[in-house]
Structures are given as structure tokens and as C-alpha cells.
Specification:
The chain is of the alpha/beta class. It has 13 helices and seven strands. Strands 3-2-1-7 form a four-stranded parallel sheet, with helices on both faces. The mean pLDDT is 93.
């Protein structure tokens, strides 16, 4: 099946302000009729997704019914925090900056992560930096992860991560999203507000979130928008240029890390196009032509999307209960 339009960025174009109005009406109705809450809490990371969610909330409810949270920790980028503060001031919302590093220290986040890293790189110590990168899924194989570390002088080393160490590092870093969500719900309870979740369609579909962490929310206003469309929405809503031009990062590890390095098979604009094409029944050959790759490589992208959807089913699932007789 072919796409109704030539496959390219134009298939993701839409009327941003009309969609902002539709989302706003949905927010108001959801709060009043289903959630019975007075306003919205948005955790602001300084990235494009949370910024657009906060702006949409203010557009729908006004600044007096939106509360922003900036929740940095030891590994957060100062630049991200500054962008978050600029956004909160731009939107005119009440907000709080709260450093979650002491809580993470008490829970063992950094200690557990570093212990796993040292099992791969025994010399790893204070002043070193780290990140995890994905490999394999689009090169005729299954996904696997590599650990990259950098000495204080800048020399980098990388090794394929054994499963045990990978799971421990990820489990430890997931504390960050879960502690942040605890703070979201503290303020939501305090104010009788609801919590906004900020995943875009790519993240929501592919499971790029932490269960009972950033995946937990009362409403998710941009989970139907591709990342490309979120950037377009930010520009249409007149958000600050630094936010509109921000490169997507995880802001989780101490080395700079793009989302495509950590999780996605391709940079977000190409991943958006691939996901749209798969959702609309476009064949691998047509996708390959649009992305500048052969049909076999494009099919591997489709296969990688399918594999991540299978893994994401657990993240989306609610708790299982015993069936009634």
C-alpha cells in the first residue's frame, strides 16, 4: 500500500493552532468531567515535549491553574534547568525548583549505578562520565547496549554491556523518573490538581518512558503528536527560540546523549516518518526511498519498531487481577 501523498515531511504537516484549541477543549473537559481536579501540574525539563505540554495547559486553563516543577539532579544539564526557568517565566506560571539529588543519593541511585559500571570498567571513579548507547537493531541483529565511559581527561572507552550490568544501570537511573513523579503527585495532591504526562507519539508508541515514572500521569495531551509535530506546535505557540531549537536528549547520563543513541533506531525526524509510514501501511521500499536507504534496511527499521512495541506492552499494562468466577 502506498501513502496518499509522496512520503516526506509534508505528511506530518497540520494546523497547529486548530489542534492546540482542540487539545485545550479536551483538557478542560477531562479535568471537569472525568478527573474532577482544579488545575494541572507539569514537570518542566527544559525539553520540547514538557514545554509544549505546559504551554498547552496555560492556553487551555490560564497561568493561574498551572503549576510547574523543575526537578534537576546531580547529572542534569544546567542548560536544561535554565531553559525550564525561562519557560516558566515566559508562561507566567507558579513554579518550584527542587533538587532531587539528595533523595536519589539516599535511595542508592548513584551508588548502584556506579557499582555496575565498575564491574565493566574497574577504573571508573569520581570525575568519570558515562552513557549507554543502543546498537544492533537495524544492522541485521537484535538490539544490544554498549556502555561508554570517559576519563576526566576526556579519553573514552566502550564495551558491550552484559545483561546483568545493563539491567542494574537502568534500574538505578529509573529512580530519577520515579522520584520526579513522586514530587509531581505531592504537588497535585496539595493543590487538588492533575498531573500532565509529556510523551510524544514516538515515545508513547515505542515505550520510551519509565513505568510508574514519567509514564505515570492523569492525562497525556501530546501522545498523538509525532515529535516533528511537537516542534511545529512549539513554534506556533511562540515558545522561546532556545526551546524550539533544542536537540532531544535524555538528560539522564553524565555524557551528552541523544535519544537516537539511547533508544531509537534513527534521528527523530526519520523515526517520525518511519512510524507514520508503518501506521499507514506504506511498504518498506517506499520508506527506504524517502529515507535514502534500500528496502532491506527500511524493513529492519519496521522490524525494530515492532520489537519495541512488543516490549512496550508491559510498560503500558495496568496491574493484573484475578478473574472473577
Amino acid at each position: 500500500m502506498s501513502s496518499p501523498l509522496p512520503l516526506g515531511p509534508q505528511v506530518l504537516q497540520y494546523d497547529e493552532l486548530a489542534e492546540a484549541d482542540r487539545i485545550g477543549r479536551w483538557m478542560v473537559d477531562t479535568l471537569a468531567r472525568r478527573l474532577h481536579r482544579r488545575g494541572l501540574v507539569v514537570a518542566i525539563s527544559g525539553g520540547i515535549d514538557s514545554s509544549v505540554c505546559a504551554a498547552l495547559a496555560v492556553r487551555a486553563l490560564g497561568p493561574n491553574k498551572v503549576f510547574g516543577l523543575l526537578l534537576p539532579e546531580r547529572d542534569s544539564s544546567d542548560f536544561s534547568t535554565r531553559r525550564g526557568q525561562v519557560l516558566a517565566e515566559h508562561l507566567g506560571i507558579a513554579h518550584e525548583l527542587f533538587d532531587i539529588a539528595p533523595a536519589l543519593e539516599g535511595l542508592g541511585c548513584y551508588r548502584q549505578r556506579d557499582a555496575a559500571i565498575r564491574r565493566v570498567f574497574p577504573a571508573y571513579s569520581e570525575g568519570w562520565r558515562n552513557k549507554i548507547v543502543i546498537a544492533g537493531g537495524t544492522q541485521r541483529g537484535i538490539n544490544y547496549f554498549k556502555l561508554v565511559v570517559a576519563e576526566p581527561g576526556g579519553t573514552q572507552h566502550e564495551e558491550r554491556l552484559p545483561l546483568k550490568e545493563y539491567l542494574q544501570i537502568v534500574a538505578a537511573t529509573n529512580f530519577k523518573q520515579r522520584v520526579r513523579k513522586t514530587m509531581d503527585y505531592f504537588h497535585a495532591d496539595r493543590l487538588n490538581y492533575a498531573v500532565v504526562g509529556t510523551p510524544n507519539r514516538l515515545e508513547y508508541d515505542q515505550g520510551f518512558f519509565v513505568k510508574v515514572g514519567d509514564g505515570a500521569a492523569d492525562l497525556k495531551p501530546i501522545a498523538h503528536l509525532y515529535k516533528t509535530q511537537v516542534y511545529a506546535m512549539a513554534r506556533a505557540l511562540g515558545l522561546p527560540a532556545d526551546i524550539c531549537n533544542a536537540t532531544p536528549t535524555t538528560d539522564t547520563y553524565t555524557l551528552p546523549q541523544g535519544q537516537d543513541e539511547f533508544y531509537f533506531a534513527l534521528p527523530y525526524a526519520q523515526m517520525d516518518l518511519a512510524l507514520w509510514a508503518l501506521n499507514h501501511g506504506v511498504g518498506a521500499a517506499e520508506l527506504g526511498a524517502a529515507l535514502g536507504m534500500d528496502a532491506t534496511a527500511a524493513q529492519r527499521v519496521y522490524d525494530d519498531i515492532a520489537a519495541k512495541r512488543r516490549a512496550a506492552a508491559y510498560l503500558h499494562a495496568g496491574a493484573e487481577t484475578v478473574p472473577e468466577y
